[in-house]
Write a structure and sequence with these properties.
3 domains, eight-stranded antiparallel barrel, 12 helices, 434 residues, Lipocalin
C-alpha cells in the first residue's frame, strides 16, 4: 500500500514513463488476439503500420542496412534491429513529452500495476509456449540421418546447439518442465515471485545458449530475461531480506489489483480465464496433436529410410567417376523419412545447408516416379525434377531424370552406414573416457 500513497522521486517517474511506453510497444499485448482461432488477421493493419514505420525511419535515420530483411527463422535480422532503435526512440520522446505534460503527478500506482500485469502475462505466454513444446520434445528433434551424415566441422554453432539439445529427450523435456512450471506459477498472483525466480533461471539458460552458440533469437531472449529482471527489481528489498538476510517478510502487494466495482472484477476474471485458455490449454492441445501425428509411423515409399551410396552417375551417356570435382555429382543420397531427404552435393539446384542439398519428395508407386522439390526454412515450393525409378534388388535403386536439360542416370545402393550417436548411449559404469 505504501507505493500508492507516497510520492515517487523524479528519477523513478522519468524511468517509469520510458519503460511503460517501451514495454507496451515491445510486447504489443493487443497482438495476443491474433492467437485466438478466427482472429489471426485482426491486427494486420497495426503490424503493417509498424513495418512501414520501421522501414521509413531506417531509411531516414537509423541506416541499419540499406535493405531490411524481415524476421523469419531469425529474430535478429536487420529489420528487428531497426525496430529496436525505433521503439527506444519513440519511448524516449514519449517519456519526455509525458514528463512535460504530466509534471505535477507524483506517482503512477495504477499504471504501474497494469504494466507489471502485462509484463507478467508476457513472460507467462512465452514460458508456456516454449515450455510445452519442449515437454513434448517438439522444439528440438533428434538428429536426422542427413544431419548425422554431415561432418561436425561443417555445422554452424546454432545447429550444433540444436542437435545437442535434441539428442537428449530427457534434457529437453526437463527444460520444458521448468519453463512450463514458471509459466503456470506466473499465472497466479500468490506464486508470482516463485514463478519469476524459476523463469529467471530458465531464461538465463536460454539467453546464454543463444549468446554462446549464435542462436539468432538473441534480442527476443534478452527481452524475456530483462522482463524477469524488471519485475524482480521492483521487489528487490523484500527479496534481499528473505534470501540474503534470512528475515521474515510480508507478502508482496505488487500484483494485487486496484479496488474496482463488481462488474469490473467479473470482467477481469473472465479476461484471466480467457488468457489461461489462450496461453495454457490451446498450446497443450496443439502440442498433443503434433506429438500424436509425429508418433504415427508412416513407412517411406519406395526407398527405405537409410543412406545410399551413389554407385554410378551418368550424365548424357558419360559416366562421371566418384573422385570427380563436378559439384553436381552426388556422393550419396539420404532418405530421412517418408517425405524428406538430402544428397551429398553442393549443387545449388538443391537447398544447401552444411554442404548438403535438401529436398522434399512424393512417390507415385503406380507410375513408379519420384517428384522432388526444394526444401528450406522458408518452405520453398520449387519443383526440381521428376525421376522414374526401378528397384531391381533389395537395397538397390535406379533413377532416370532430367536436370537442367541434361539426361541423368543414378544407381544407388543402400549401405550399412552405422552412427554410434544414434544409439543414444548411456552407461552408469564407464571404464574409460569415451
Amino acid at each position: 500500500m505504501t507505493e500508492r500513497l507516497s510520492a515517487w522521486p523524479l528519477w523513478k517517474r522519468l524511468g517509469f514513463r520510458f519503460v511503460f511506453v517501451y514495454w507496451l510497444l515491445q510486447i504489443a499485448p493487443w497482438g495476443w488476439l491474433s492467437r485466438i482461432p478466427g482472429l489471426r488477421d485482426l491486427n494486420d493493419p497495426y503490424f503493417r503500420l509498424v513495418d512501414w514505420s520501421v522501414r521509413s525511419t531506417n531509411a531516414r535515420l537509423f541506416h541499419v542496412r540499406e535493405t531490411l530483411v524481415p524476421t523469419n527463422g531469425s529474430g535478429d535480422t536487420s529489420w528487428a534491429w531497426a525496430q529496436l532503435w525505433l521503439y527506444l526512440c519513440v519511448a524516449l520522446v514519449a517519456a519526455l513529452l509525458w514528463s512535460v505534460l504530466d509534471r505535477k503527478r507524483e506517482s503512477y500506482p495504477r499504471a504501474s500495476y497494469w504494466l507489471r500485469t502485462v509484463v507478467r502475462y508476457y513472460l507467462a505466454l512465452f514460458a508456456l509456449s516454449y515450455g510445452i513444446i519442449k515437454v513434448f520434445a517438439l522444439q528440438m528433434t533428434f538428429p536426422s540421418l542427413s544431419q548425422l551424415s554431415t561432418p561436425l566441422g561443417d555445422l554452424l554453432p546454432m545447429r550444433f546447439s540444436w542437435l545437442f539439445i535434441g539428442y537428449s529427450t530427457p534434457y529437453q523435456v526437463m527444460s520444458g518442465v521448468m519453463e512450463t512450471l514458471a509459466g503456470v506459477l506466473l499465472l497466479m498472483r500468490r506464486t508470482v515471485t516463485l514463478g519469476l525466480v524459476v523463469a529467471t533461471a530458465a531464461f538465463t539458460n536460454v539467453l546464454l545458449i543463444n549468446l554462446s552458440y549464435d542462436v539468432p533469437v538473441k534480442l527476443f531472449a534478452l527481452h524475456l530475461w530483462l522482463a524477469c529482471v524488471f519485475l524482480l527489481v521492483q521487489d528487490a528489498a523484500r527479496l534481499w531480506s528473505f534470501f540474503v538476510r534470512n528475515r521474515a517478510v510480508e507478502p508482496t502487494m505488487l500484483y494485487e489489483p486496484p479496488a474496482v466495482g463488481t462488474r469490473v472484477r467479473y470482467a477481469q476474471r473472465a479476461l484471466k480465464l480467457g488468457l489461461v485458455v489462450l496461453f495454457l490449454f490451446l498450446p497443450l492441445q496443439s502440442s498433443w496433436r503434433r506429438a500424436a501425428a509425429r508418433d504415427r509411423l508412416v513407412m517411406p515409399v519406395p526407398l527405405a529410410r537409410g543412406v545410399y551410396a551413389v554407385r554410378r552417375w551418368v550424365v548424357n551417356g558419360d559416366t562421371i567417376p566418384a573422385h570427380s570435382v563436378d559439384a553436381s555429382r552426388w556422393r550419396d543420397l539420404v532418405i530421412d523419412n517418408e517425405t524428406q531427404g538430402s544428397v551429398g552435393s553442393t549443387d545449388s539446384l538443391f537447398w544447401q545447408r552444411y554442404r548438403r542439398g535438401y529436398f522434399r519428395y512424393n512417390a507415385d508407386t503406380v507410375a513408379r516416379t519420384l517428384a522432388m522439390w526444394r526444401t528450406s526454412m522458408l518452405q520453398d515450393s520449387t519443383h526440381l525434377f521428376t525421376a522414374r525409378y526401378e528397384l531391381p534388388a533389395d537395397g538397390v535403386a535406379r533413377l532416370w531424370t532430367v536436370m537442367r536439360g541434361d539426361s541423368v542416370y543414378v544407381e544407388l545402393v543402400r549401405t550399412a552406414r552405422h552412427f554410434q550417436l544414434s544409439e543414444r548411449q548411456f552407461h552408469w559404469v564407464s571404464e574409460y573416457n569415451r
